[in-house]
């Protein structure tokens, strides 16, 4: 799975789960802040493992992409 596909999946998952979490606020008042806080903390630990792409040329063909 590419980073673009992963980000699209994560965005769609957030669009589905976000309203459900806010609805659950009536039963569990701490659920929304804890959920969003955990997502932020986990993403901050994952961020250093993403490859650096600044200054790299964009691939023009699939062959260029495979060679990267």
Automatic annotation (TrEMBL):
Keyword Transmembrane: yes
UniProt keyword Membrane, yes or no: yes
Keywords recorded for this protein, A-Z: Membrane, Transmembrane, Transmembrane helix
Transmembrane segments: 30-50
Descriptive protein name: Solute carrier family 22 member 11
Organism for this UniProt entry: Myotis brandtii
């Amino acid at each position: 799975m590419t980073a673009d596909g992963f980000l699209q999946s994560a965005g769609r998952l957030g669009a589905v789960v976000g309203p459900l979490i806010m609805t659950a606020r009536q039963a569990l008042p701490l659920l929304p802040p804890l959920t969003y806080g955990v997502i932020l903390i986990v993403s901050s630990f994952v961020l250093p493992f993403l490859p650096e792409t600044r200054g790299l040329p964009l691939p023009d063909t699939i062959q260029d992409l495979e060679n990267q």
